[in-house]
Write a structure and sequence with these properties.
Domain Type VI secretion system TssR-like N-terminal barrel: 40-142
CATH architecture of the largest domain: 3-Layer(aba) Sandwich
Mean pLDDT: 87
Number of domains: 4
Pfam family, one: TssR_VWA
Radius of gyration: 35 Å
Distance between the termini: 96 Å
Strand order of the largest sheet: 27-25-24-29-30-34-33-32
Protein name: Lipoprotein
Helix content: 25-40%
CATH superfamily of the largest domain: von Willebrand factor, type A domain
Largest sheet: 8 strands, mixed
CATH topology of the largest domain: Rossmann fold
Shape: globular
Number of helices: 20
Strand content: 25-35%
Oligomer: single chain
Low-confidence stretches: none
Domain Type VI secretion system TssR-like C-terminal: 623-768
Organism: Bacteroides faecium
Length: 768
């Protein structure tokens, strides 16, 4: 028999081949990362970061094929060759991200994260995968989300502030000047930087000992941007839970911090004729009221006065006034354009100052001489303000001007600013002619200075008559006289002689543009602009001078505050003690104040949050606000937009509604889906169906149930036309649509930035 065709040899050859193949496969599979290696999917236990441990998410709520990504929770972290082994494999730094490939007890095996390494749970570039070995779970951050409320599914917000006596007595170890130290390890030994006190943060993880917490600036972190999102480890003595979103205007805030503007509401209990709120109120830790420093005139600046100046010097009020001359009527739209540009600049470039803007004109509607001239009091509602101005400018021919010789609009503008005389005021006066002689009324100059008004005088046109010259002369004298009085008052706020000037001198900038020479040779500010004879001044020069004057005032006020801050920090702390409220809460003596605590809070005041109750009667509901981050605001607006998309169709000619059954069912399904969104334990369909509509909206938005809702049936009753008629349904949907418009125009009014994230204070009456 031919040896090649021997069947026994063929069988042996096949078996040997299979054995070799099996051996090669087995050897290959012994490698940590091999062709059979798959990335582990995120376990239900680590998909959410619930404040109550051990809760697992159901698989139906988890995204399909999402790889489990973990992060090194400390600097100098170490991996090993085997779970729990002694032989070290690799050292790696704080926040380095990894894919998980194996899990065994308290350890997991990882490969270095790379965005191009994986496709779903499959390793695309197996040969490029860097295997790091086995790491203890406790040395890693196992979740990408921050601490979450079990009942609402919302992320809990925290505030950086003092929480107990340990933070008070050992403040120097965890605080620097108005900021808190963050670290790259849970033992708080490797300092990483600092974050401002009263910042909003999110808790990712607590250390095994519970004395420190890993915090982030965002509620959810991502492997590609984790270094900029995770701030570091911080002492839990500085972490105060703020809740999720509901706050109330219940008590005044002890400090001027936007994150502490309103009081957190932790729970609410309705009784027969009243409502009881469980709140977390902030109280000052120290009492500086007995402190004082000396000003340049030898008088005292007390600490309460200093606190008031910190508020007043951050507020600027601007009134645009128009002279009562006929030629000013046709020029009014040009001034409106200047105001519009200013408003846009102030809205788009927040600078820490608060602005009110008003206008005073001599214009009356034609045929109605009894009606008062068009005036807008200084306000912060820029949208309504500009709408009013635009309406007048558009129909300016429907108005008339009663010519006068006494600058009544200038007098009235000064009067309008009297209630803001402790703040900084600007009057932009646009006119052409003067009256009387060269000197203005001394009473007007005295009142202008008394109301702390800076004048910007803008002569639009200069003719040959002496009255045009009088405008320039009178305005220059008015600005000089008022500036002299304002400078004397300013000396009562100055603590350094460096900023004193003998007089208020003028300087010329461009041709026919003069201003007080601040800060070189003048202690106050003022501007005067006029054209050449028989020519007009262009509006762009008014825009330039107004912007420059505002910048000068901001520079001046910031300098005053900076000098006061330094003086009180270095010389004005000798009489500081613990506040009576803090001493009582912490059970300490009020005169046993550590010196290090004052050094840590140089420009702000330390606060404590204490639990308490706030009760109000049914007819005396306080204002409620939601504190929302950008993602929460986007989700809320998306919900309101979806809710307002439901409409009923009405045939006006026949005066009847088209069938609404389909809309009612869709609306009920939408509300049922939204009320259980992100909730761990969703409410049953029966329970939701028995809830009042206002209560369902309260659960979804977080605001207390609205008393102004036009109709308040249960969700099941909403489907029944004989209970909720088409007219009532239409009224309800129109009400929701009006709230959407209100939300779209006003949600940015009270916004601020904390740790690089946008936050919004949203009034609950802007929601249905």
């Amino acid at each position: 028999m031919n040896r090649k065709n021997n069947p026994i040899r063929k069988i042996l050859r096949v078996r040997i081949s299979l054995l070799l193949y099996t051996t090669i496969v087995m050897l290959a599979s012994c490698a940590p990362v091999n062709r059979f290696t798959r990335l582990k999917k995120v376990p239900g236990e680590y998909a959410r970061n619930y404040e109550i441990g051990g809760i697992k998410m159901e698989q139906k709520f988890l995204e399909h094929a999402t790889p489990w990504i973990v992060f090194s929770a400390k600097d100098g972290n170490m991996s090993h060759n085997y779970p729990g082994g002694r032989i070290r494999r690799k050292e790696f730094g704080f926040l380095e991200p990894f894919f998980v490939i194996k899990e065994k007890g308290k350890h997991i095996a990882v490969v270095k994260y790379s965005p191009d390494l994986a496709e779903g749970l499959k390793l695309k570039e197996r040969k490029n995968a860097k295997y790091y070995g086995w790491i203890r779970k406790s040395d890693l951050l196992l979740r990408q989300e921050s601490e979450t409320d079990v009942y609402t599914g919302l992320k809990n917000k925290y505030i950086i502030t003092l929480t107990d006596t340990a933070a008070v007595n050992h403040s120097s170890s965890c605080l620097s000047t108005d900021s808190a130290y963050v670290f790259a390890d849970p033992d708080l030994t490797i300092r990483r930087g600092g974050i401002p006190v009263y910042s909003i943060v999110y808790l990712l993880k607590k250390s095994e000992k519970g004395n420190s917490g890993l915090i982030s600036s965002a509620p959810e972190i991502y492997a590609d941007s984790v270094a900029g999102q995770v701030l570091g480890w911080i002492s839990t003595d500085l972490l105060q839970k703020k809740g999720a979103r509901l706050h109330g205007k219940l008590y005044p805030s002890p400090v001027d911090a936007p994150s502490l503007k309103y009081v957190p509401v932790l729970s609410m209990k309705h009784q027969q004729d009243s409502t009881v709120l469980q709140v977390c109120r902030s109280i000052p830790v120290i009492d500086r009221s007995a402190n004082f420093i000396l000003n340049t005139k030898g008088g005292r600046i007390t600490y309460p006065r200093y606190e008031q100046l910190q508020t007043d010097l951050k507020k600027i009020n601007i009134v645009f006034a128009v002279e009562g001359q006929k030629e000013m009527q046709a020029e009014f739209p040009g001034m409106v354009n200047v105001i519009q540009n200013l408003v846009q600049t102030l809205r788009e470039n927040p600078d820490g100052f608060g602005y009110r803007i008003g206008v005073c004109t001599p214009f009356r509607k034609n045929g109605n001489r009894s009606e008062s001239p068009f005036v807008v009091q200084p306000c912060t509602d820029y949208i309504s303000f500009m709408d009013s101005l635009s309406e007048v400018a558009l129909h300016i021919n429907n108005f008339s001007v009663q010519e006068e010789q006494v600058w009544s609009t200038l007098h009235k503008s000064v009067d309008m600013l009297e209630k803001y005389k402790n703040e900084t005021n600007i009057i932009v006066f646009v006119g052409t002619k003067g009256y009387g002689g060269e000197s203005p009324s001394l009473s007007l100059a005295k009142k202008t200075a008394g109301n702390n008004c800076r004048i910007l005088a803008f002569q639009l046109y200069a003719g040959e008559k002496f009255t045009y010259d009088n405008f320039v002369l009178q305005m220059k004298n008015l600005i000089t006289l008022s500036a002299d009085s304002i400078s004397e008052k300013k000396k009562e706020m100055l603590v350094s002689a460096v900023h004193l000037r003998e007089k208020n001198s003028w300087r010329q900038g461009h041709k026919n543009i003069y201003s007080l020479d601040f800060p070189d040779a003048s202690m106050s500010q003022g501007w005067l602009l006029f054209p050449e004879k028989e020519k007009k001044m262009t509006w762009d020069k008014l825009s330039f001078s107004t912007d420059t004057l505002i910048s000068q005032i901001k520079q001046d006020n910031s300098m005053l505050l900076h000098e006061l801050d330094k003086a009180f920090m270095s010389m004005g702390n000798s009489k500081t003690i613990f506040s009576s409220a803090a001493a009582s809460y912490l059970n300490i003596r009020n005169d046993n104040l550590p010196a290090s605590l004052l050094n840590c809070f140089a420009y702000s005041s330390p606060l404590l949050f204490i639990p308490g109750q706030f009760r109000y009667s049914s007819g005396n509901m306080p204002e409620y606000f939601l504190l929302l981050n950008k993602e929460e605001m986007d989700n809320l607006r998306s919900f309101i937009e979806g809710l307002s998309s439901f409409e009923v169709d009405y045939v006006e000619e026949a005066s009847f509604y088209l069938p609404t059954g389909k809309i009612r069912k869709q609306l009920c399904r939408y509300l049922f889906r939204k009320v259980n969104e992100n909730r761990l334990c969703g409410m049953s369909k029966k329970r939701v169906g028995e809830m009042k509509l206002a209560d369902i909206l309260s659960v979804i938005t977080g605001c207390p149930a609205s008393l102004s809702f036009p109709v308040n049936p249960t969700l099941e009753e909403l489907k029944k036309k004989w209970v909720v008629t088409d007219e009532l349904l239409d009224a309800m949907l129109q009400y929701i649509a009006s709230k959407k418009r209100l939300l779209d125009t006003g949600y940015k009014k009270e916004s601020f930035i904390s740790n690089g994230q946008s936050y919004y204070w949203l009034r609950c009456d802007m929601l249905p």
